[in-house]
Every structure is written in C-alpha cells, then in structure tokens.
Amino acid sequence: MTDAAWGPGTATTIGSMPGTDPVETARTVVGELPDLAPIPELPARGVGADVLGRTAGLLVDLAVEVVPSGYRVAGRPGRDQQRAVDLLRWDLDALEQAVAEKGAPRAVKVQAAGPWTLAAGIELHRGHRVLTDHGALRDFAESLAEGLREHVSQVASRTGSRVVVQLDEPSLPAVLAGALPTPSGYGKVPAVPEPDAQRLLGEVVEKLASATGSPVIVHCCAKRPPVALLRRAGAGAIALDASGLGDVSGAFADELGEAWEEGTTLFLGLVPSTEPANAALRTLAQPAFDLASRLGFARRALAERSVPTPTCGLAGATPAWARRAIALTNDLAKLFADESDQ
C-alpha cells in the first residue's frame, strides 16, 4: 500500500533545468518547491547528463559506453559510465548542501528513464536496440529497478526526506506503434504488444513503489499518452502535457476519466517549457479547467487529484524563464486550491 507524497497546493517540475551549475540549481528547486523538489537534471553538461546517460549511471552490473550512434552496451564500465556516476554524485552533493541551507523538502523526486525508453535508446553490440532481445530487455529492467532502489536509499539518507520516483517514458508510444527504426534505417522494429509492455513496466513500478512506500509517477509527453496502459501497470500518477492534449474525446477521454476516478493523480503540464508570448495565470490554467469540465469533474478535483508542472523539462529555457516557470507552477497550485469549492 502506498500513500501519496503530495496534496492540495503541491507543485513540481519534470526535472531538467538549464545551465551547468548543480549547486545553484539545487538551491533554486529546494527553495521554491518545498513540497516536492526534483533532483535537478542538467543535460547541458553533455554526455552522462542526458536522461539515458544519467540512467545508465544507475544501472547495477551492466555497463554502457558512447559510440557515434549513441549509447551501446559495453563489456565493462569505462570513462563514459564513470562520468555519469560522477555527475550524479555531484548532484547529490549539491542537493545535500541545499537542504542544509534551506531545510529538507517534504518529498524529493528522482527521475530516470523508464524500462522501455531505456531499452529503446541503448544498442546491443551489433547495433540493434536492447528491446529486440528478450533476455537483455529483462536484464536492463531488473538492473534499472535495483539501481533506482539504491539511489532512493542514498537520497533519503542525504536529505531526510521522503523520496518519490518518476519514470520518463517518452519512447513508449513509438515502442507500442512499431515506429522505431532498425539499425539500417530502412525498416522498423516490430511493435511491442500492449500486454507485454504493461507487464514489464508494471514489474519495475511495483518494485519501486515497494521500495519507496510512495506512488510511482510515469511521465509521457506524447500528445496521446497510453494512459490506460500506465494505470494498469500500477502508475500512481501520470505526468502529461495538458496544454497539448487538444480535443479530449472518445476513448482517450474515457481513459483519463477512469484514471482520475480511480485515484490516479494527473501531473498536468501547464506552464510552457520556454517563455511564451502570454503567461497570464488563468490563460495557463484554462486547459486544466477545460479538462476537468470535459471529464465531468468539479474544479476541486484539480486540487485533490492533480499536480501542476511545466509542460516538459526546462533544459531549453533561459535561467530567468526557468525561475518564472517554477513561480507560475506554484501559483497554479495555489489557484487550484483556492477554487476547490467550485
């Protein structure tokens, strides 16, 4: 049984931030997001700081190296994987320093690539994706779960905060659709059946929920994320770009409505990840109000069953907009709480 680490008034970000200074960025997120502070990801630092490299640095008994086409399985850990490990250690040092200065957040959120995005993005020795080899796929999923459990333990020890895990699955829709290219570029990797995708993701989610005692968040910023699959896989929260959903109707509306009705929290991406022409608070909130109305829920559901976030990571933002986006996200959380009686 897991209890939510968030409630009315909670806001957070997806995870990535601009710049290369982990100390200053950690101070920002710990100071501005005291209820659910993400460990900042700074992909501008290069190899090992992007989502795949960072996640590879968490793997247990598996090694990855960088080749011209991307990340590839290696026979033993090398400098590429060591760089990822070092960057993450420096990030934890920065987080611990920020907590000492500003106080411990109520909860800390760690982010990593989910098993399908990881297996889609890393190559085997001959160039094929890990997800094409059943044995390698299972090895990576198990290693990911074990590595994240160790990471969660370290974060909890360093901060004294409750820890929540977010799995990023941007590649999952392409995995399900058979849209990933083969090494030659002339073919496509066969689609993974939904029951198989759900089963593997569910195994990882179950292990992480057990390790943290908190619901696991699964983030997918596709226009039509596979909400029903994620819910059946055990995701306690689903993070999506609410500003880009468009006309929510038909089967997709049913999936979202059922998820909300059954207690799945929706992390609603509402604040643009780069500076927009119009950043008026109610303009940003409107997609959330429209979604609640379309699904047949009163506005209080936004306070009780949603957490506002930026639409995606903030790595491409200016530092000034990243700070403003966090402030607006907090303002949205307050707005939802204030209007919870409507």
Describe the structure in your own words.
By secondary structure, the chain is α/β, with parallel strands linked by helices. Helix content is 46%, strand content 14%. The chain contains 12 helices and 10 strands. It has helices at 22-32, 51-56, 79-102, 115-121, 134-159, 172-177, 194-212, 227-232, 250-261, 281-295, 300-305, 319-338; strands spanning 37-38, 63-67, 70-74, 107-113, 122-123, 162-168, 217-219, 237-240, 265-271, 306-310. A 7-stranded parallel β-sheet has the order 1-4-6-7-8-9-10. Helix 8 (227-232) links the parallel strand 7 (217-219) and strand 8. Helix 1 (22-32) packs across helix 3, helix 4 (115-121) packs across helix 5 (134-159) and helix 5 runs parallel beside helix 7 (194-212). The longest helix is centred in the middle third of the chain and has 26 residues, at 134-159. The protein is globular, with a radius of gyration of 19 Å. The protein starts with 21 loop residues before the first helix and ends with a helix.
